[in-house]
Amino acid sequence: xxxxxxxxxxxxxxxxxxxxxxxxxxxxxxxxxxxxxxxxxxxxxxxxxxxxxxxxxxxxxxxxxxxxxxxxxxxxxxxxxxxxxxxxxxxxxxxxxxxxxxxxxxxxxxxxxxxxxxxxxxxxxxxxxxxxxxxxxxxxxxxxxxxxxxxxxxxxxxxxxxxxxxxxxxxxxxxxxxxxxxxxxxxxxxxxxxxxxxxxxxxxxxxxxxxxxxxxxxxxxxxxxxxxxxxxxxxxxxxxxxxxxxxxxxxxxxxxxxxxxxxxxxxxxxxxxxxxxxxxxxxxxxxxxxxxxxxxxxxxxxxxxxxxxxxxxxxxxxxxxxxxxxxxxxxxxxxxxxxxxxxxxxxxxxxxxxxxxxxxxxxxxxxxxxxxxxxxxxxxxxxxxxxxxxxxxxxxxxxxxxxxxxxxxxxxxxxxxxxxxxxxxxxxxxxxxxxxxxxxxxxxxxxxxxxxxxxxxxxxxxxxxxxxxxxxxxxxxxxxx
Amino acid sequence: xxxxxxxxxxxxxxxxxxxxxxxxxxxxxxxxxxxxxxxxxxxxxxxxxxxxxxxxxxxxxxxxxxxxxxxxxxxxxxxx
Lengths: 481, 80
Fold this sequence. Notes:
The structure holds two protein chains of two kinds.
Chain A: H1 6-22, H2 25-43, H3 48-67, H4 71-103, H5 118-133, H6 143-151, H7 153-156, H8 164-172, H9 178-210, H10 219-250, H11 268-274, H12 277-297, H13 299-308, H14 310-333, H15 337-356, H16 365-387, H17 391-401, H18 413-416, H19 419-431, H20 447-470
Helix pairs in contact in A: 1-2, 2-6, 3-4, 3-5, 3-6, 4-5, 9-10, 9-19, 9-20, 10-16, 10-17, 12-14, 13-14, 14-15, 15-16, 16-17
Chain B: H1 3-18, H2 39-53, H3 59-64, H4 68-79
Helix pairs in contact in B: 1-2
C-alpha cells in the first residue's frame, strides 16, 4: 500500500488511527502490529512469511547471544541468516548473470520477485542483534514487541532505518498526546505534498529525458533531466521520510531525522551526513567502525605503524574501509553495476576530500561558493549514474552533458517541460534550502501565524489529494531497494 | 593520573592525529565541535589513546562516546 494512495489515506490510516487511540494502553502495540502486517500483506501477500521468519530468527538469535558463551559465533550466524534472505531475493540473479558472463556458464535465473522493504527491515533486524551483542540493550523477551519494531508500517518499506537502541525505550513505554498527533499530521502532509506535488511532477520530466535514446539528447536537455532527477529523488525520499516520521509521531514514536537539507552541503562527506542519515549512520555503526576497528587491532597494523609510520598506515586503513563501505552502500541500493559504481564514486570523493582537507571552513564567500558548486556537481553527476539503467548509457549521458557528444534532437525543450513543471522546478530548487524549515513547528509563533500555516497545510493536503485522484503516475523510488 | 593530566595528554593526541595547531577540549566537546573529527579520524584517535594509556576500548564504547567528558571518565575508570 502506498502512503500516497487513496486506500491508505482515506481508509487504512483513519481506521488504524481511530483504533489505536481508542483501545486500552496494553492493546495499542497489538493494534499497531496487526495493522503493520496487514499493510505489508496488502502489497506483498506471499512474502509476509519471509518477514515473520526474519523476526523469529533474530528473536531467538538475540536471546541465545545474551545467554551463551559463543556470542560472536551466534551473532555471525544470525546475521548470516538475515543476509541469506537478502542475497537470495535481491542478489542471486545478479550473481548468476555475472558468473554466466565471466565464465560462459549457463546457470538458470531463479524466478523471484524481491519482497518490498526487505533491504530496510533486514538492516533493522541486524541493528537489533548487534545492539544486543554489544550489550547496549537487553534482548526483547516479548516477540510481539520485537515484531512491532521490525514491521512498524510507517518505516517498514522505505525507512528511515530505525536503530534498535534508539527506540528500545519507546517500544516499552511511549505516550500518545495531542501535541504529538498534531505534529505528526502536519509532518505527514508536508511529506505528502513533497512527494505528490514536487517529486511526481519533476519525475515526469526526468523520465521523459532518461527514456530517450542517448543519441537523441543534447547538452541542455541532459542537464534538465539530471537536475530534475536530483530534485525528484530528494523530494520523493525525504517526502517519504517526513510521512514516516509524522506517522510515527501520531503513534507516539520519535524517529530520528533522515534528511537535513543535503543539497546545501559543501562536500560529499557533509552531504552523506545530511542525506539518508539513517543509512549512513547504519553503515557507520555496524560496518565502518567495527571494520576499521578490527583492522587497527590486527597484527599487520602495528607492524606497518612501526615500519611505514602511523599516518600512512591510517590512510591505508581509511582506503580499505572506504572501499568496503561504499561498495556495500552502492550495492545495497540495487543489484546492478551502476549502483556499485555510484557507491564507489561517492567513496572516492570522500577520500579526495580527506587527503586534500577540502572540508576546511573557508572564510571568503568565493571559497564557500566553490565548495558548494563542487558538491552539487558531484551529487548531480552521481545521480546520472544512479538513474541510468546501464553504465554505457550513463557514460554517454555524462559526455553529452559536457558537450563531448551531441545527439540529434528530435524534440524542442518545450516537449520535456510544461509551465507547471517549470514552477515545480523553481519551487523545488528554492525549498531544497532551509527556508521553509519552521513550517511544522508551532513553538514561538503567534496564534495568527499558526492559523495561517494550518490553512496553508490544509490547502497543500487538498491539492495533493486532488493530484493523487487525477494521476496514475505515482512511483516511490526507494521501494525498489 | 588525574583529570587534568588526562586532558593534557588527550589534547596532544588530538592535535597530532587531527593535524590541528590549537584545540581546547572540555567535558562537553563533541565530534561536531572539532574540525576533522569524523568517524574516520575517530578510529585512529581511539587507537592512539589506547596506545598512550595502555588499555582497550570495547566496541560498544567506541560507537557510543558522545563527548570528551565521557571519554575522560572512561579512561579514568580503565586505568584506575
